[in-house]
Sequence to fold (388 residues):
Amino acid sequence: MKLRNLLCALSIVVFTSSAVLAQLPVIQADIPPPVVTARAYVLFDASSGQILASQAISDRFEPASLTKLMTAYLVFDAIKTKKLSLGQNVSVSERAWKAEGSRMFIDPKQSPTVEMLIRGMIVQSGNDASIALAEAVAGTEDVFTQLMNKTAQKLGMKNTNFLNSTGLPSPQHYSTAEDLLLLANAIIRDFPAEFAYYKEREFTHNKITQPNRNRLLFIDPTVDGLKTGHTDAAGYCLIATAKRPGATGGERRLISVVLGTNSDSARTQESQKLLNYGYQMFDSQRMYTKGQAIAAPQIFKGTQNTVKLGFDRDIWLTLPKEKFTGITAMLSTTQPLLAPLQPGQKAGIMKLVRDGKTLAEIPVVALEDVKVAGFLGRGWDAIRLMFK
Fold:
């Protein structure tokens, strides 16, 4: 069924409630997800924000070099707020120069640019580059780590604690598949231009060329990121993302997080397996567009009698293919709806239901500004509400 016909087929039921927005359920396909040989994994549709498959997503693991995603997030933010610039030269401390583990081999006698360090951190997974960038942003890596943890909380990463900018192992340096998914999605969403660094296949610095450890970049042309990680404690980890054409047009982005496999080839194979499953078994369709009015309920004590309600973003839904029929849209608004009401202010919830099961619960917001009425208007509506 074409999307336009689907939207016309949706029946809208309006009722009153004070329901609270709930988490989207994991979508079940007729064919279960493949067996994934990993300690934890999650597959996510970025357009709809829905989880398609998962295992042990709240279990804590050492994130290894996946830590560098948060380091990059903070560096990108520093560039956005003009605290750093891509062409800015960075002094390399002895601490950065002598970093353990994977390196981009920066020379302390030179002053590499911020962009060179970004590429060294992302493509070559350089611990030396990560520390140099952390010091450029915050002065010291210790202070930078505090910023990492504050940002993690803001992003909703409730089960994460960082002790360094590199991912060097420690029992108290941990995260989860769910939290790392939030972080990866935030990079793609908040820094689309900088995200392009993650698809680079190799980088040369000081005449040393190192390939990107994300082998999917060389195997699957639809994959354009993100990051690998490995320590003895963490195992082999990979966060991958791809964009492929959707059945109804446009492109779908999926993100997979695979933690704790036993080899480089295993993390590549299991990630590819998840991405293929997500594209083969599911599809995403846009149900509503940003700013589209879906209802105009009565409002009291305002300068107008009704208010247009809708969404502050495009609303997408991911379902198993051929499952987009028989969907009912149920709108629940705050009652009584009182002025003042500002554009973007939450005014209700839209539930999308199929066969008695809730597929999604989406906040509904005011699309227009409704100011408070004068004394007489407020008084009249107060009387009306007494008899409502």
Observations:
- The longest helix spans residues 264-281.
